[in-house]
Design brief:
By secondary structure, the protein is mainly α. It has helices spanning about 25-35, 40-45, 50-65, 75-90, 100-115, 120-145, 150-165, 170-180, 185-215, 215-230, 235-260, 275-300, 310-315, 320-340, 345-375, 380-405, 410-425, 430-440, 450-455, 465-470, 490-500, 515-530; strands at about 445, 470. Strands 1-2 form a two-stranded parallel ribbon.
Length: about 525
């Protein structure tokens, strides 16, 4: 990230001269006497018409994009508008957008496009979580000089930022009341004229909409479905609540950003005597060396004698989650020693040994998981765990560099690594890879051993792998697909399997078009037509 000198106010509670470009307002002056506001808060308060309108527009757009529509072509549209709004609103508040934020914006758009190219519910939820974290880092990065922040500081800052957002829930209502109360006659007249024009436009829009509906059947079907949704009281309430939620989210996050309530300094804590840390890590290091020696001899080398009545396959398949837990705890241990204790050559050497042993444990865990997958097939969780082990190896490489170079920006190493690795994981189409592997381990056939997981767990992303598979004709009359008839052709059966992966409520439309679902639908139709 860009290492620039932050010129933002040092404290939230200090009195800061108001923005000279802002016009004075008696109501705001009374509020500032009670609780001093910084220039960013004054700017947000005095221009509620601008920021409130943007927040309302984002709320309405979010409702249009996401109501009963978790992953479609509207997802990248919404994310593009969100980041365009950020690039527009933050500088108007006096918070410049830093040039190196392009990486965060690009990553958010890559994941947004992935959400309309996948039908996996799990992946969509992970994408939403990733978008939330990227957006949090984006906003915090603009408001503070985070060039020296570590992972702990950033985690704490994200929690404080969203706690501040929750504390700003009153701001839209307070600022809106002040705006209406401070309206002059000219502005009030314009507001009433705008409302009158909007009211007059409703019957005109209904009339023109009816004519256009008669002219185009696709427009008619889309408009008909929209009216059915809007005139349903339950749906209307849900729509209003969703729009209100996103309106408050945008405006309150701006309020939290303007408050500058996160301390910018990092207290230097690595000043404790390292003797206790050396003795503690020395004992742990000896234990790890002994354990890793056993892994090299027994697991990787397959030498030595195992306990009675145990095979190497049984030995290799146990202990995976324990090793994963210990590897993650080692990461925390090394970072804690570097943060809280003085640098010492002996301590650094022991931490290097622990880090190298962690790599052996990661390799052992990955080897055990691969053996487990080979015996019991591949699932989303197992694939995700293997990805996480690879990511943990990259993070540990950054920790090793940090041991020798105290000024190494470990947080940005982790940010770039995690973001790039997750984008690669999302775009590799995990459900397709899982289906392809599970079918391949059955010799390329769909059998009773893999059909249950294909139908009950995977999404339409796996349609291509299913279409390329073979089905033994002896299974055509078996009830592999719940509530299905007997099939006389393998292509018809594969089409039925693919159709079972497509949600019943999904329809290919302008708003809810999903690339993966549309491709699966087309593939099923082609298989049915080939009968």
């Amino acid at each position: 990230m860009e290492n620039t000198e932050n010129k933002l106010p040092h404290s939230t509670y200090g009195t800061i001269p108001p923005n000279p470009s802002a016009s004075p307002n008696p109501n705001l002056l009374k509020e500032s006497e009670q609780k001093p506001l910084n220039s960013y808060q004054l700017q947000l308060n005095q221009h509620f018409d601008q920021y409130g309108l943007w927040s309302l527009a984002v709320g309405l757009l979010a409702t249009f994009c996401f109501y009963k529509n978790p992953g479609a072509v509207t997802y990248p549209l919404f994310m593009a508008v969100i980041y365009l709004a950020a690039y527009r609103l933050l500088p108007s508040l006096g918070i410049p957008v830093k040039k190196d934020s392009c990486f965060l914006t690009a990553a958010a758009m890559v994941l947004a496009f992935n959400s309309c190219f996948t039908a996996s519910p799990i992946l969509l939820k992970l994408n939403n979580a990733a978008q939330f974290l990227l957006g949090s880092v984006f906003l915090i990065h603009q408001c503070y000089d985070d060039s020296r922040w570590n992972i702990g500081k950033y985690t704490n800052s994200i929690l404080r930022f969203w706690f501040g957002t929750a504390c700003c829930l009153h701001l839209p209502f307070a600022h809106g009341f002040s705006f209406v109360k401070g309206l002059k006659n000219g502005k009030c007249k314009n507001l009433f004229m705008a409302l009158a024009g909007f009211s007059a436009g409703i019957p005109a829009a209904l009339l023109l909409g009816g004519l256009l509906a008669d002219a185009d059947v696709v427009f008619y079907s889309t408009l008909y479905g929209l009216f059915l949704t809007l005139f349903n009281p339950v749906s209307l309430l849900k729509i209003l609540m969703l729009a209100l939620f996103f309106f408050l989210l945008v405006y309150c996050s701006l309020g939290s950003a303007c408050s500058m309530g996160i301390p910018k300094e990092i207290s230097e804590k690595n000043n404790r005597n390292p003797v206790a840390a050396i003795s503690f890590t020395f004992l742990i290091g000896l234990l790890y060396l002994f354990f890793c020696g056993i892994q090299i001899i027994y697991l990787f080398g397959r030498r030595g004698s195992l306990p009675w009545n145990m095979t190497y396959a049984q030995y290799a398949r146990q202990g995976f989650f324990q090793l994963l837990t210990v590897s993650f705890l080692n990461l925390i241990l090394v970072l804690s020693c570097l943060k809280y204790f003085k640098r010492h050559r002996l301590l650094s050497g022991i931490l290097v040994i622990i880090s190298i042993c962690t790599y052996i444990m990661i390799a052992s865990a990955a080897y055990r998981m691969l053996l487990y997958v080979g015996a019991y097939s591949l699932t989303f969780l197992r694939l995700f765990v293997l990805w996480f082990l690879g990511l943990l190896s990259i993070v540990m490489a950054g920790v090793l560099i940090l041991i020798f170079r105290p000024q190494f920006p470990l947080f940005y190493w982790c940010l770039v690594s995690v973001t790039a690795a997750y984008c690669a994981f999302a775009w590799c189409r995990p459900d397709y890879q899982i289906a392809k592997y599970n079918i391949a381990r059955e010799g390329g056939w769909i059998t009773p051993n893999n059909i249950d997981y294909l139908i009950q767990t995977l999404s339409a992303d796996a349609a291509t792998a299913i279409a390329e598979a073979k089905i033994d004709p002896c299974f055509l009359d078996s009830q592999l697909i719940p509530h299905s008839q007997e099939f006389t052709d393998t292509a018809a059966m594969k089409a039925a399997i693919i159709n079972s992966l497509i949600p019943l409520e999904w329809e290919s439309g302008i708003r809810n078009y999903n690339v993966s679902l549309a491709a699966a639908w087309k593939l099923a139709e082609e298989l049915q037509a080939s009968n």
